Amino acid sequence: MSLPNPLPLLARAPVVPVVVIERLADAVPLARALVEGGLPLIEITLRTPVALEAVRIVAAEVEGAIAGAGTVIDRAQIEASLEAGAQFLVSPGTTPALADAFAGLDIPVMAGCATASEAMRLAEMGFEVLKFFPAEASGGAAFLKSIAGPLPHLRFCPTGGIGPANVGDYLAVPSVVAVGGSWVVPQDAIRAGDFAKVRDLAAAAAALPRAARFD
Ligand SMILES: O=C(O)C(=O)C[C@H](O)[C@H](O)COP(=O)(O)O
C-alpha cells in the first residue's frame, strides 16, 4: 500500500493545532489567526455538528491554511471529509477496517496508535507518520525516546496532554516530527472572539525548535 507521506506538510510547522469548532462563524477568524501566527496546518476535529462545514470553509476561504479532519474513525467520515475538501486526515486510533479505508487515499493520513505493536503494524502497512495518542497518558516523550532505539524508522506526531510545560520534551525527540495540541486554541478565547490571543499562542508555538530532520 502506498500512502502520501505527511512529512512535507508537517515540515511546515512544529505544532498542529487541534481545534473544536462549536460555532461555524468562529472557523474562518480562528484559522486566519493560526495562519497569521505561523501554524498553517489545522486539524478540525469531527466532534461537533458544524465540524465538516468548518473544514469546508477553512479549506475554501482561508488563504495559506491547510485544513485537516481529526477524530476520523470510520469510512463514512473519511468520505465526508474528502468531500468537504480536507487536505489531511487524523485518527485517534486505527482499527483494521479504518486502516483499509485509509489505503488508497491521495491525501496524507496520520493514523493513531498508542503501543509499539500498533505502531509497527501501521508502519508495515505504509503509514509514514503516526499519531501517538493519548501521548501523555500512554508514556509521553519517555515512551517515544525508548522505542526509537529498536524502531528507528518510526515517525510520530504525538497528541493528547501536550502543552507549554512539556512540548519541549516531545520536540527534543528526533522521531517526533511535530506535535498536536489544543493549547494554542483555548475554548475560552474562541468563545470570547479573542483571536489575537490565538495568534499570539500560535506564534509562540511556531517558533519552537525541534530536533527532527526533514532532509
Ligand atoms: O479528537 C481527536 O481525534 C483526538 O485524538 C483527541 C485530540 O487529539 C486531543 O483531544 C487533543 O489533545 P489535547 O491537546 O490534550 O486537548
From TrEMBL:
Gene Ontology molecular-function annotations: 2-dehydro-3-deoxy-phosphogluconate aldolase activity
Record's keyword terms, sorted: Carbohydrate metabolism, Lyase, Schiff base
Pathway this chain belongs to: Carbohydrate acid metabolism; 2-dehydro-3-deoxy-D-gluconate degradation; D-glyceraldehyde 3-phosphate and pyruvate from 2-dehydro-3-deoxy-D-gluconate: step 2/2
EC number: 4.1.2.14
Pfam families from the UniProt entry: Aldolase
Coiled-coil region(s): none
InterPro entries linked: Aldlse_KDPG_KHG, Aldolase_TIM, KDPG/KHG_AS_1, KDPG/KHG_AS_2
Reactions listed under catalytic activity: 2-dehydro-3-deoxy-6-phospho-D-gluconate = D-glyceraldehyde 3-phosphate + pyruvate
CDD domains noted in UniProt: KDPG_aldolase (cd00452)
Keyword Lyase included in the entry's annotation: yes
Keyword Lyase: yes
Family indicated by similarity: Belongs to the KHG/KDPG aldolase family.
Classification via PANTHER family: 2-DEHYDRO-3-DEOXY-6-PHOSPHOGALACTONATE ALDOLASE-RELATED, 2-KETO-3-DEOXY-6-PHOSPHOGLUCONATE ALDOLASE
Subunit field text: Homotrimer.
Name of the molecule in the record: 2-dehydro-3-deoxy-phosphogluconate aldolase
Primary gene name: eda
